[in-house]
Design brief:
This protein is of the alpha/beta class. The chain has 6 helices and 7 strands. Helix content is 26%, strand content 19%.
Length: 145
């Protein structure tokens, strides 16, 4: 296990991010929580200790990353008027993500979590790149990733 082998120091802190709260996200969490882990919030991501014996798991909901023009989030308003919102995912979550398990349902009128430009910009900022992989479980073609 990780306690014996440990995670390579260059990859620390190892952070698995799971988007969504539905059945798909719960299924992913059931699997990855079999590993030595600690659950953390989005706000904790920038200050995680570099522990080589565990994986940090952060479950992200739209309330963590979506804001309107005033920097606020209202679930009912977000569902009715997603065009009023923008995603902060690329700014406050993606830079700290080792592996992204994307499990949300998405429709074209909702903001994207990650854009091609956002991924490109991240590769220019990080050396080495922290993001090791994206598992798009949602599989919405031309979707939120």
């Amino acid at each position: 296990m990780l306690a014996e082998k440990q995670i390579d120091k260059e990859l620390l802190p190892m952070t698995f991010v799971v988007t969504g709260t539905g059945r798909t996200a719960v299924g992913v969490l059931n699997v990855i929580e079999k590993l030595p882990h600690k659950r953390v919030t989005v706000k904790e991501l920038p200050n995680l200790p570099k522990d080589p014996t565990l994986i940090y798991i952060c479950q992200v909901d739209s309330s963590d990353i979506m804001v309107d023009g005033d920097g606020k989030y209202d679930k009912k308003d977000y569902k009715q008027h997603p065009e009023r919102y923008r995603s902060l995912f690329e700014e406050i979550v993606l830079p700290y993500t080792s592996c992204l398990f994307h499990c949300i349902y998405w429709e074209p009128h909702f903001p994207r979590y990650v854009t091609k430009k956002g991924l490109h910009d991240l590769t220019l900022k990080q050396d080495p790149l922290k993001l090791l992989g994206i598992c798009d479980v949602s599989c919405d073609l031309e979707g939120s990733l």
